[in-house]
Amino acid sequence: MLSAVCLTLGQFVNNVPPMEMPQLEGLVLPEWIDANGHLNLAYYVVLFDQATDLLYDALGIGQAYREATGNSTFTAETHTLYEREVRVGERVRVVPYLLGADTKRLHYFHEMFHAEHGHRVAAQELIALHIDMSVRRVAPFPADLLKKISAAVRACGDRPAPEGTGRRIAMPGGARMP
Predict the structure, then answer these.
(1) Which CATH number does the domain housing residue 26 bear?
(2) Does some domain include residue 106?
(3) Full domain range(s) for residue 96
(4) Does any domain span residue 95?
(5) How many CA atoms lie within 13 A of 177 on its CB side?
(6) DSSP string of 26-82?
(7) Total domain count for the chain?
(8) What confidence category does residue 47 fall into, taking pLDDT thresholds of 50, 70 and 90?
(9) Within a domain: 90
(10) Across the chain, what does the average pLDDT equal?
(11) pLDDT in tens, 58-71
């Protein structure tokens, strides 16, 4: 597994170890190709979801956390940008960015790059909610976990936000059908 390290001066001052952001590398499978001969939109999301699983494990909110605490996360909102075609047999790399967190939410972004050529092929922005599965309602992160997540967000704070962060969907110039 590849990983990027978010390292800030605050980590040196406070002697906090850097948060390793896991990156996903994946191969485009033949069964993921649509009638247009490229990766079907649903499988971009599959790859983004696999990258989310790695990110959640790194943050301590993955499967082991669910099993140990009965808490989980639900994705509340996503925005996916499809920018370039990807074809069967090509490799992609998904890079996560932590954008923010509060007591009940996590805001993050994924960029997907062509692994060989390096250009961005897609991006996805997400908001997840922390859920108490016993009542299936939004609940605060435990204090120790929120501290860890907040430190990870701060550690990545010096990185510029990826292009497309906060983008809304709209017709150019606000055009509407007559």
Answers:
(1) 3.10.129.10
(2) yes
(3) 22-162
(4) yes
(5) 0
(6) EE--GGGB-TTSSB-HHHHHHHHHHHHHHHHHHHT-SHHHHHHHSEEEEEEEEEEEE
(7) 1
(8) very high
(9) yes
(10) 88
(11) 999 999 999 999 99
